Amino acid sequence: MCGIFAVVNDKTNNAAQTVLAGLKKLEYRGYDSWGIAIKPINVSTLRVEKHIGKIGDAKTNLPKGRIAIGHTRWATHGGVTDYNAHPHLDCKGKLAVIHNGIVENYLEFKEELIKKGHKFASETDTEVIAHLIEEKIKHQNLISAVFETFNSLVGSNAIGVIDFESETIIACRNGSPLVVGVDEKNHQYFLGSDVPAFLKYTNHVHFLDDGEAVVITKQDVKLFNIKSGKEKKLVLQQLDWHLEDAEKGGFPHFLLKEIMEQKETIAKTASINEKEIEKVSNLIKQGFKTVLIGCGTASYCALAGKYFFANAGLESQTYGAYEFSPFARFSDKKTIVIAISQSGETADTLIAVRAAKKTGAKIVAVVNARGSTLERLADIVLSVGAGPEIAVVSTKAFTAQLATLYLLAKAVTDRYETGKEKIKRLGKSLKNWLDDKLRNKIINLAKSLMNQEHIYLIGKHLNYPATLEFALKIKETAYIHAEPFAAGELKHGVITLIQKNTPCFVLASNDEIKGEILSSAAELKARGGRIIGIAPFNSHEFDEVIQTPDLGDLTIFANIIVGQLLGYYLGVGRGADPDKPRNLAKSVTVK
Ligand code: AGP
Q1: Which residue of 223, 269, 554, 557 has the smallest Cβ count within 10 Å?
Q2: SS3 for 261?
Q3: 171 forms bridges with which residues in the sheet?
Q4: Nearest ligand 1 atom, CA 586
Q5: What pTM was computed for the model?
């Protein structure tokens, strides 16, 4: 939550414009407000601009300069106002701070600082950081003042501090992501919460570890250990991400682009991680207990994984990571905890992973973003390779994670190669099926549902987690109450909700339980429900159907993609922003 961006030595001399463009790429991390601070050329005072609302098509008239920082905010402490937007300044306006995280002990600092005469301009926890540094700088140099301040903060935090006199940016990380990018050719340096913000300029990066800081000047970037203050060797890695990954590529929204990219991303997943999957499957074969955790979409992926494992004859457990703590003590050295996450930065997932680690459990990360905290905590990383997912709503990362779990389940029963072939075949069918004809069909369905406030969905076995994910896409993107149920739950109370014309989605596959789910559909129909089948077949129980390819136990991929597209078109039709749904942030880095 919150996006950090900075540039040093901007080659265009227009650092504010560069920061503005970078922040637009990071807006998915928070869109309550945004702000930029720049040191204009040949001027000693800094200039700041802050606004509430989405950065969208915003422009800035800030003067030219070669060093600037900026921030997109997802509010935690202090309301959504201009004055609470970052950057925050010290009393003299010599340094500015941007921050992602929560300073849990900020109130005690604030009281002390006020007593010492510091004047506060906001209600945020962030502002204390600027004043603390200002106070310390009276007695020590800038770098140690920043490090000492950062060491005194309680909580998960990442900060960027710009000192205008020395034209230096210092960034520190503990728990919230930070990555530095080096454009060696043009001697430009970048700082971001995530790579897409500066991918246009460089893919040579260093992901900061917890406890690391970078000091960026016109000359170079230096890496430090914050606790000891000692310099470390900075080793850059080159990512295989390209500019197109962070652009809309002709699509009106990232969400639609990412949904359509699944024609390639799912099959691509089948070609990576072979060795790592083998390592995990060996542990499972040795009798390790398997626990799958995640939040939101990732938790539905975990649940689908549980069915894949069950189909392979394996028992596993799943938990929403936020509910894991009472059960953490049942993990031990013979447990593998498979943590699923797009960002690898979700606080609830990281807390659960740390709790499991304490018990000696092995951690397997099924993660999409690169250089994340989850990756660092894990013993084995299954990096799913869907590429940057910019839309807040997860789509292609989810299906790549799901494919990875499928392959793992196959590997445990020595059928990895068959699994790989099936995933590749799935990719091929998606290429044919995911076309304009399908999209038009879904657009028409969306039009007919546009004014609905309640939608119900049922699914059974593998189609149960599919139903949960389908419903979440509609809730997140279109703000419609979409309630998913296991079909078996219907008769136990839920059926009271069904009235004449209530939209009821029935997700099904061509499998041995097809008859059971169709009986449930018939029960809904008998109560007057409008039955919309999402299945590889038509049936008289359905009033209408979106037919998906018949892919055996992989049919749920296509069934879920219908939900992604439907959510998208409903969202657009209802005037929502499909890339940035209200109140949501891409990575939820607070508890
Ligand atoms: C997905 O569409 C959601 N926005 C959300 O549920 C998300 O999946 C969840 O917050 C977990 O995020 P992660 O995968 O980055 O851990």
Answers
A1: 223
A2: coil
A3: 160, 214
A4: 4
A5: 0.83
